[in-house]
Each structure stands twice: as C-alpha cells, then as structure tokens.
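hey so u asked for the seq, here:
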Amino acid sequence: MLRDQLDRAGIKVGRRRVGTLMKRMGIEALYRRPGTSKKHPGHKVYPYLLRGMPINRANQVWALDTTCIRMAKGFVSLTAVVDWASRKVLAAKIAITLETCHAVDVLQEAFIRHGTPEIVNTDQGSQFTAEEFVRAVHARRCKLSMDGRGAWRDNVFVERLWRSVKCEEVYLHAYDSVSEARGSIKRYLDWYNRFRPHSTLKKKTPDEAYVVMLPTVELAA
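ran it, structure tokens below
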C-alpha cells in the first residue's frame, strides 16, 4: 500500500525497498482477528448467493457489516455499505448501540446516493436478519445473501476494509468522544475512497474503479 501511495505521488520505488525502509524505521503493519456478529435464534437466515459468481460490475453486489470501534473510554459501532467490485464505501454510520435501525439507515443512505444493487450481502448478525432490515432490502427488489455461520471469508472485502480502517486510523488514535470518532473516521473513509489505491483494482482508487465499473445504462442515467 505504501509503495502504491508513493507511486501515485510520483516517487518510483520498489515494494522490497519500502519493506527494507519500514524495518529500519521500526514500522510494522497491525492486523486484527476476524470476528462475527451474534445470530438471533428466532430470525430467518438467507442462503449465501455469491459462491462462484463473477462480480465485476459496480452496484452488482453490496456488502454490509458492522464492527466495533474502541475509544479512549468505551466503544461505538461502525456500519458500512461497500460496493463489492470497486471496494467503494457507499455509506457509513457510527452509532452507540448495535440496533437494526442503524443498519437500515446506512442502507437507505446508500440507496439514495447510489441506486439499487442486484444483491445485498451481510453476515448473520441479528441487525441484518431482523424483519425491518429484510423488508428494506426486499422493498428495492434486491436479493438478500448471508455469509455462512462464522464464515468471515464470505464477506472478505468488508473484513479487509475493517483491517484498513483500524490499522490506518483507529489504532493510531484514542477518541475522547463519539463526535470525535465520527469526524475522524468519516475523514478517513473519504480519503480511502478518493486516494487509497488497491492492487486488485490495478492500482485504481475505489472512486476511480466505481465509475469505470458502472454499467453503461447507469452512466447514461
């Protein structure tokens, strides 16, 4: 990632050279362990629809997930909608509780700003299996897909986003308030979409890839 950032800034340097300099400076990458949301025993779970499916268009599949963000004192939850093909964060919300209404809010924001995907993919967390969230998905005539139980790799691109958010932003700060966490993480996600290149996107940023991957009909509209 650092090599790609330097390349975009006009500084030509190899990946191994960057790694050597990081070691000399004592800089190490931080990693999180994957976690899963708690399933509600009374809620219906939908099958996973993405296995073996080629996903190469923007607004083909959106992925939602919620992660816990540590502050100086206490925690908040971060819910985000990510376009699977382009990795673009379409909408995000920081909340102090883990309730279904927050998942619905962030999904509706993504609908308003970016249209409607073919499939919405989530884990089996209670906020995503709740009737209110399921209705919001089906009201737009989207298919609902859910990861296998404990299978965080089924939603791997959101897990990679959480790793980036935490290693590049959250772990470097101790937020004193919810408003500080909201502002700081919002700035990071804006930067992530506009400036962070991805090797799997041929070094494009999520914003750049999203525009290129939009179907012709959506671009015309």
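Residues 59 and 117 are 4 Å apart (CA to CA). The chain has two domains: 1-30, 36-220.
lmk if thats what u needed
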